[in-house]
Amino acid sequence: RHHHPTMAATLTLTKVSELGNGDVRTLETLIAKGRGFERLDDLSACIELRKLDLSDNKIATLSELAHTTSLTYLNVAHNNLRSLAGLQRMSKLNLLNASHNHILRLTYISTLTELKVLVANNNDIQILDGLHSLRKLNALVLSHNKIEEVALNFLPELKKLSLSHNGIRVFPDLSTSLDLKEIRLNDNKISTLPDTLRLNSHLCLLDLGNNVIQSLKDLEVLSSLRFLQNLNLKGNPVTEVDGYREKILALAPNLTVLDGQKLDAAEGRGAARVAQQAKGKKKKLPMKPKGEKGEKAVKGEEAVAEKSGAKPRDRDRSGKRQADGSHAPAKRVKGEEGKGLQSAGSDGKKVKQPKQQEKHQEQKQDKAKQQPKPQDREPSGKRQAVADGDAPAKQPKQQPKQPKEPKDQEQKPTTEKPKQPKKQQQEDKPQPKPQQQRQEKSKPQPQKPAAAAA
């Protein structure tokens, strides 16, 4: 009349076949949730089993699963477990949910090197061990335990961490978890944030509610978290500081949720504006007006001009530099040097550089060599001044034609014309040749007949 309690509360292979509706050897998924099981039979015959859900039962041990090594998903939440012994050989396990049990330590999961998600909240865990080898772990939930010290600087792929409702006093070092996006450390005893938190620059959510943070200085590291959108500091003494909300928004201008309340767009823009103004308060050196140079710059220009044989190009007659920093436009000069205006860069015209000035100086020297010698003078004894670039002198009035003199007297002095660069030849084309001027002026003036003089 009475059913045997042990048989009724044990998950046997027969029950497995009934729940799986098929052969246990080909079964891949088994859902045995809330069936009141207290014990497990050996399930090693389920060689293809991948997903096993045993939550909401009364199971006290998992030793019967020691040979079920093909599992990738295991849910044993809401049972009477005090240990995770029996899972050591599950090298393919990716997700383990052991929440709401009476587990004291995580020792037996150190061999689960493929584990990516570990959920063990609402247990009696005091010491965090067995996690050093879980290098692929990306989600760790250990809230509602009795943990006081945390060392987790060995989880490079961690993205979500929950350690709320523990006794933690020091914010954990997470400097190796560079891709961390969510940290939940509410309801602990944390008083400040470490500088190492700057390395978690991709953080989007930070829950520090109900801790003992008192000063805004303890939160200065928030300015480095430019992707932070959700921040909770509710329940900390710092929330009672004057201007708390505005100062927090200045530190983290990209927030969309603060202390559980959504921020409107206008408040977010105002926070961004305050942050920009704070950055803009940095002292800037006074800038000189455009075109104004210091004494060293002026002396440098003069030294370059002296070496090239040119005069300073930006001085007025009194020798002082113009007050507005611009160069006075040079006068137009006739001849080869009068091809254009020399002026400062401030009025948009070209300024001759030292190389061009050297070329013009060489042209002057070549033309000086070609000037007439002392014997080529007029009868009056005055030497004609044919300066470089000067306009040709006016021709004397035409005298009555005289009989031609012998050819020996008509021969004009010839001088070899020095070869000039192509640029100089192009510049010389439109100007009258100084040699022709000298030849025309050096012609002997026809003398009046002796009879007319008498």
Question: What do these coordinates show?
Answer:
This protein is of the alpha/beta class. 20% of the residues lie in helices and 8% in strands. The protein is built from ten helices and 14 strands. The protein has a twelve-stranded mixed β-sheet. It has a two-stranded parallel ribbon with strand order 1-3. Strand 12, helix 3 and strand 13 form a beta-alpha-beta unit. Helix 3 (244-251) packs across helix 4 (265-280). The longest helix is centred in the middle third of the chain and has 16 residues, at 265-280. It is elongated. Residues 1-7, 282-286, 312-352, 374-394, 403-417, 423-427 and 447-454 have low confidence and may be disordered.
Structural class: alpha/beta
How would a crystallographer describe the biggest sheet? 12 strands, mixed
How large a portion of the residues is in β-strands, by DSSP E? 5-15%
Radius of gyration: 50 Å
Residues in helix, %: 10-25%
The succession of helices and strands, N to C, reads HEHEEEEEEEEEEEHEEHHHHHHH
- Contiguous uncertain segments of 5+ residues: 1-7, 282-286, 312-352, 374-394, 403-417, 423-427, 447-454
The number of helices is: 10
Number of strands: 14
Q: What is the rounded distance between the termini? A: 180 Å
Shape: elongated
Strand order in space, largest sheet: 2-4-5-6-7-8-9-10-11-12-13-14
Mean pLDDT: 75
